[in-house]
Each structure stands twice: as structure tokens, then as C-alpha cells.
Amino acid sequence: MYETMKGKTLVITGATKGIGKATAEKFAQNGVNVALTYNSNKEAAENFAKELEETYGIKARAYALDILDTDQFKPLFEAIDEDFDRVDFFVSNAMIYGRPVVGGYGKFMKLRPKKGLANIYMATVGAFVAGSQEAAKRMQKVGGGAIVTLSSTGNRIYIENYAGHGTNKAAVEAMARYAAVELGEWNIRVNAVSGGPIETDALRAFTNYEEVKAETIKRSALNRMGTPEDLAGAILFLCSDDASWITGHTLVVDGGTTFR
């Protein structure tokens, strides 16, 4: 347990399931208060926040957020200010899938820059920038903090139909490095966690999910798919004092799938 994290506050986007939910719980286990966002399932989000409070004795609140509308980040953080007295950690996790990515998920010749591809950019890079800017203003007031963006090894190796997502994950990693340099003077560290294929609803939405799953298990040195908890532990570490001299880095958590 990271005792020095107790009483601090995490803001995390998209935390009602998958990687976001596992991460919120991992931080709560370490005494961190949690401000989490959801897209549409208010009941699930509020029930999860209540569960975190009752189980771990921390403060947790849920807020609606559409990551495709970056103008929502300012009022989001203002609402968080009403409920929490500080912001120490920001995790840009929420991602889109389904109808919003039509035109961005598919073969190269089928990509549509003004449709799904633009949405993927906004949900990946735009949301990271807008959220990190608001978080950094608050971290500066408490002497520093840590920001983590989720990435994917799909920007390092070829995954069928993943060009739209993979290239935008590469872009957000580059943006994180720039942010790390410029926010360092405020004692704010910025890193990325790049996951191999993780067993989540987003992955199950892939048309070739079963094929991806089988190939991941085949390539993994550990002979299994990744889990949301695998990434949550890496995110927690990067926000902890144990990672106090790590910034501008992408931590690859892929079960060895990218070197076989």
C-alpha cells in the first residue's frame, strides 16, 4: 500500500467498467479519493462511487462527461472543485467505440478523416489535452501531481482494422512527452501506459475480437490475455512516489506480445 497517497484525489475519465473501473478501485484501496466520469450510465457510476466509499472509506463522486466535447472539461473540474479540496492525479482513460468510430475503425482505404477518424483523435488526444490542462492548474496549487494517459501497443505493431486507433495512440504518447517537459517545472509528471490487447468491452466490440484474442494468447510470453487489473497496477505505480523520477515515459504492459 502506498501510504503517501492516502487523502489525495484522483480524477479519472470513463471509470464505470474495464480499465477505468479497475484503476479507480486500485487507487481507492490505497486511500485515494476518487472523482470518476461516465458517459451515459449514471446509475452504474453512482453505485460504483458509493461502493468505493463503503468498501474503502474514501470519498468518491461520479460526473457525466462526453469526451468528444472538450468544452465540458472546464465545468467538470469546477464541479469537482465543489466536492474535493484538491486534485493530485489525472488519468485520461475514457475511449469511444461503436457508432462514433464508424469511418475510423477499419482498413486504411476505408478510413474517413472527417468522420470516425476525427472522433478518435478528439477522444484520445483532445480529451487528454483538455483534461490535463484543467488538472494541472489544480496540481500546481498543491505542489505537483501525476498525469497518465492510456495508450495501446497498436501503435507499435500492426493490428487489423486498428489504423485509426493505433495512430492516435502514437499521437497521445507524443503529446504526453511534450506535456511532461512543460509541466515538469510545476513538479507534475506525465506518462503513458501502453497496453496490449486487454479483455474489455471495447475490445469485444471489434469485429475480429475472437481472432485478436487468439493471436494475443499465442504471442504472449505468459500465454494469456491482459486484464484491466494488469494496467491498473501500472497506472498506480506511475502516480506513486516510487516513480518520482519517471516522466515523459511510455510503460508497455503487454505480456510480451510485441517482441514475439
UniProtKB/TrEMBL annotation:
Single GO MF annotation: oxidoreductase activity
Pfam annotation, one family: adh_short_C2
Keywords for the protein's UniProt record, in alphabetical order: Oxidoreductase
InterPro entries tied to this protein: NAD(P)-bd_dom_sf (IPR036291), SDR_fam (IPR002347)
Family: Belongs to the short-chain dehydrogenases/reductases (SDR) family.
Name of the protein in question: Short-chain dehydrogenase/reductase SDR
Origin species: Nitratifractor salsuginis (strain DSM 16511 / JCM 12458 / E9I37-1)
